[in-house]
Amino acid sequence: MFDKLTDDLQPGDVLARTVFDAGGQPLLKAGTALKPSYITRLRHRGYVTVTVEDGLADDVAPETLVSEQLRHTIAGHVGGFFGQMGDIARERGRGQGGVDEAVEDLGEQPLPLADRGREALEQLYADVQSLINEIVGSDTVAGLESLKTHNEYTFQHSVDVAVIGTLLGSRMGLSGGRLRELALGCLLHDLGKLYIDEAILDKPGKLSAEEFEAVKAHPRMGYELIRRMPVASLLPAHVAYQHHEQQRGTGYPNGLVGDNRIGPRLHEERMGAGKMLLIAEIGAVADVHSAVSSDRPYRRAMPPDVAADLIEGMAGKHLNREIVELFTRIVPRFPVGRWVEVLGGEFSGARGVVTELHVLRMDRPNVRVLIDADGERRAAPAELDLRTHEHVQLRSLDRHEQPTR
Ligand SMILES: [Fe+2]
Ligand SMILES: [Fe+2]
Predict the structure, then answer these.
(1) CA of 121 to the centre of ligand 1 (A)
(2) Topology, domain 68-330
(3) Full-model pTM
(4) CA of 287 to the centre of ligand 2 (A)
(5) pLDDT digits (tens, 9 = 90+) for 178-205
(6) If you write DSSP's letter for every residue of 90-127 in order, what string do you get?
(7) How far is the CA of 156 from the centre of ligand 2 (A)?
(8) 2-37: per-residue pLDDT in tens?
């Protein structure tokens, strides 16, 4: 199976995964052979990619950490909540003047969330618990597949960040209460983007100095919005506030620093002026991973191995080094189901699919070799265990390189 752009779909392509609508309901079931009318409908509804069968290795099912249905359901709720908050932001002088004026417009009272807004927030608390239940209860080593089927980027991104953040937080042993604050903070971390022009958010290419200043307002605005909501703790607001800070003080908006460790930390140290909170440092790693793993108007999604290289390169200066080390231990560079090219050894240049991971050697999976280096389909697939072929490397195949029958 592989992800195909809906622009490239052909009649007869078979869905390998169910496509869900914004409400989390199945729109087209796995196994459906696409007719022209279905393809048109998918494009009209804003789906960018769907997963289709490749006719070669469809029996290899990727492990999923969180069900796609739950991800879609939460993305729908996040969208609804952002809508509610957007109404309030618009009523209160959104976009006029600078950040300080916008904060002043919010006033010091709790925000007047209407009943629907309160329900939406309660729903998010319930979603956060469902997410934690699925992740804490899972011992699978799953790839972090992004919800990239729909075009409402901010909402999918929010869910992706919450999934990765919760995975990291749970594997480092955070308590249930702290995990809930982390996950809610991740879901709402970009809420302040309500104050940024969409044309700037989706702009391909480099932002002007003025546009970047506008973007840099979103952590503060997110914090100011969340802390005026009926939330159980201020910590989710700080995840939003600090998610663009960096370990060496080179981030924004306050130039906080980190010590590149996971902990344990004293209460005073955690809350100390000038220092990032651990849950915000987790959010920062999750934010970068989600951003580079998603299709954007200005660039394609990076495959997991390339995204992992990038994140490792950011450890120390930008991202908390120990959190990045944990990340690379628990998230596979080549998840099950991924099409790869074999580099080196007798199968060099051949292509195949990752079939099995080994927890203690995640960098050395098993690969089923299906296509020879000359592009011919092998009569019999070869099973390659990379643990016994130490000189062999792998490279993820891009969408346009995926072989099909
Ligand atoms: Fe952000
Ligand atoms: Fe973000």
Answers:
(1) 20
(2) Hypothetical protein af1432 (1.10.3210)
(3) 0.90
(4) 5
(5) 999 999 999 999 999 998 888 888 788 8
(6) HHTTTTSS-HHHHHHHH-SSPP---HHHHHHHHHHHHH
(7) 10
(8) 888 888 999 999 998 888 887 778 889 999 999 999
